Amino acid sequence: MEEAYVRLLCPDCSKDWESTPSDLPGHETVYDCPNCHASRRLAEFTRTDHDLRTLKGLQ
């Protein structure tokens, strides 16, 4: 089975990265950017609506 990835983008510093949904907290959880440490709900870091739906669907 192929594992899904969620694409993330920090709204503050524009760092982009990918992660598997199983490695991330829930979409409503406050999450810190690994680059600039900005704190926001994880849902705000998802790059697209598709990434957010993937995150919600696989957690």
UniProtKB/TrEMBL annotation:
Pfam families the record matches: DUF7836
Domain DUF7836: 1-59
InterPro entries cross-referenced by the UniProt entry: DUF7836 (IPR057158)
Name of the molecule in the record: DUF7836 domain-containing protein
Domain of life: Archaea
